[in-house]
Amino acid sequence: MCIGGPYIMGFIKQIPSRVRSAVVFQTIGLSNNRDAFMDMFDGWARDLKTKQPDVDEAAWEKFKHSMFGGEFLFNVDEAFVTNCRTPLMVLMGNDLYHPEETSRKIATLAPSATFVEYWKESQYVEAAKTSIFQFLATNSD
Known about the structure:
single chain; 3-stranded parallel β-sheet; about 50% helix; about 10% strand
């Protein structure tokens, strides 16, 4: 969930043979919202800087740009997703940090993607859980 989407895609990029399938659940992603991520990081770092005085400002900036400076999912681009052969189940996000556009784009680009639009509302929870379990059972060894 959330930042797990980029982490999952990073694992697939680095060690594709170790990832049989993945559920990309309300992932973060870039969609005219980079400033929001940078502001979020700055707020988070502001508190930590007082506890980590040995870390200089350049290191904080490098960390921030390593986290949120890339394209699309921050650590992989659309071309990677287009060529990703790992079966993915994408549960749609729908807010500033978890944009619907990102979820839909992953589902459209990835050749082996299954898209779940409705899952948050109580009437959809059980069906979504069942779909996830079935997807993982079908796409694992």
